[in-house]
# Entry
Amino acid sequence: MLRSRTFQIVVPALLVMALLPLGVGGYILGLLTLAYYYAVFAMSWDLLFGFAGEVNFGPSFLIGVGAYTAALLNHYWMWPIPACLVAGAIAAVIGGAVLAVPALRLTGPYFGLVTLVAVLLLQNMLVLFAGITGGEIGLDLPDVLSIDDSTNYYYALAFMTVSGGILFGLSRSPVGLILQASGQDAIEAAALGFNVAKHKMAAFCISAFFSGLAGAMLIFYLGTASVGTVVDIAVGVNVIIAAVLGGRRTIIGAAVGAIFLIGAGEILRPLGQLSTFVVSAVALVVILFFPSGFMGRLLQSGGRE
Amino acid sequence: MTALLEVSGLTKRFGGLVAVKDIGFSINAGEILGLIGPNGSGKSTVMKCIMGIEKPNAGSVKLDGTDVAGWPTHRIARHGVGIVFQHARPLHRQTILEHIQLALLPDNLFMLVTDHKITRRAEEIAERVGLGQVMHRLPRTLPFADLRRLELAKAIARNPKVVLVDEPFAGLTAGEVADFSALIGSFRAEGHAVLLVDHNVKGVAALVDRVLAMYLGEKITEGTAEEVMRNETVRRVYLGGKIETAARPDREGKGHTPLLDVRGLGVLYGKATALDDVSIHVGEGEFVSVVGLNGAGKTTLFNAISGLVPFSGTVAWRGETLAGKTPGAIARGGIVQCPESRELFGDMSIRENLDLGGQHLTVAEAGKQLDWLFGLFPILKARQGQAARTLSGGEQQMLAIARALMMKPKLLILDEPTLGLAPVILEQLSKALEVLRQTTDITVLLGEQNVTFALPHADRVYVIEHSRIVWEGDPGRFAEEAGAGYL
# Structure
């Protein structure tokens, strides 16, 4: 069955990841740490796109709100990290809800456009109030998660595993089924007695929670919050590419896509500017010819018939 | 006995169009009401208003005494209305059983584990509708009839007081129709109130207790199936009154040079057969009508000819096969379709729409064609600066025909030009077609469910029913030979 097949793939992979710090250097660990946070961004995005059927072009709005809330609280009020993380996640949920309530009333591409504009607004605000936010240079944080590579790596791995587990579990639960029905045919879902707006709203909040939390975690790992790392449109585009590359409606695929994207970017670094081009080209080929993504194909071939 | 569903004064307007006008009826527990009417009569809108998919402008929908008119769909569903959609769009990655489980779930954000009771209930329902053998399979591996069974299973799972069924037998074989009739009959036996929506009385006659017939948004009559079939107005709506046929002035070689030759055409939509072994031919200068009810396959036939849907069989145009040609190439070759949905550019003016049609003509030619069309449809000349979106239905249809004629077609395909039009507009349109027919030697292929409109102009008539051509002949012989099967 699919369930066991998924576990057959995921459990050994997690074991290998857990043992990695014994064998590889700090540089690669740092890279993977970053990738794991991206994986959470991508998985949260997949819940919204793959299941609720809503394209959020602005994942970095949710990430950025979470990250900067945590950063500002830590920088100016010296809140401890756990409190900043909680506040960041809550802020992302509130920001997401404020955005989603009017946006979900819109149909078709308009929801996506609203989310896109939200990112631009946030980015402009941060640059405009550079005196407080540090603008494009960024905001230094007095606290960091850890200065040890392995510890940081394990934080990220544990965070990704738990978030992924929750998101995956949700997607396979009855609620996930309702969400998927709402995303695919809203009228039919409503005719079956489901409040489509409520379920989509819930999905948006859950997506916002994990995005915001991951954004906050990421800046405490990096030790600085900057527009380029957590808000810029390019961040959002990478998240979307990762999720689609890995496989829509799989959650786990989104994580695979994120790790691939960051890993490939690094391996191709010697190519200089060309590396971005090559990664983009690979993404394009996968999207054009294997629209169900890496995991989509893997799970499908042995899936239930 | 109290009525489970009581609809009164139901009215729905779309802009200036009144789709449903003061409709009222009631259905008791254990009763099946058939709601019939030709395409565009508003019966589907009535169904959508009951379900809350459309919000009625006026009137009440009382469900077991509670007025639910204007409620959101999911609340109406929770209150006891279920719907069996005509077109099922199942989820790709969920099994049949999971689809039925979905229908059994409460509207709750915290259902994280599937209850075993729900699973067992879903299995029972799957057995009941005949999906027991296939309940662990994915929808895409199942035949069309099983997907329709799944829709029924979902309605059963919801256990609604009132069940709405949209075109219960569309696309099913005779054996499957019997199965479905039995399943729908079991709703009645269990004390549900059932509303069957269909195009004609014949299809649902054996199943229903009463029938309500609609035309152009209004109720024509209500009674038993036999009474409705005998009703004069119903007969007129479906068969037309006295059919007058006028011969077209004979021209040299008319009808002899074959222009379009369709042989053994078959089209599948997924798993549903849309056309089965259809052969028709149209000669140069002929006016050929294809009549059939909505869903019979007319539009599919035209789309196959225009290269818009894949098909088996052959379509030859002036002796050359059209297989492999793009829709654009086919249109440039002289086959121009004026589709049922009109496809006007709503925000452009009448003039701009027409100019687009005449893009490939020289300025002088286009001007001449435009003058001629303005003579044919004077109303378009008077309103040429007006945006197409703001025109009435009849004017839009005239514009659609005029735009098609701007392309100087060799063969003009008109797909249901009368859709949703009021009788007075029909007359204007009919006159314009007659002028076209008498003064030019254009070749026309007309698809219609309105026989009164289709027959007078036709040189030859095909009747299409359930994806097949069932009759071909002279319009004068239609009423006695093919009329009876048409109610």
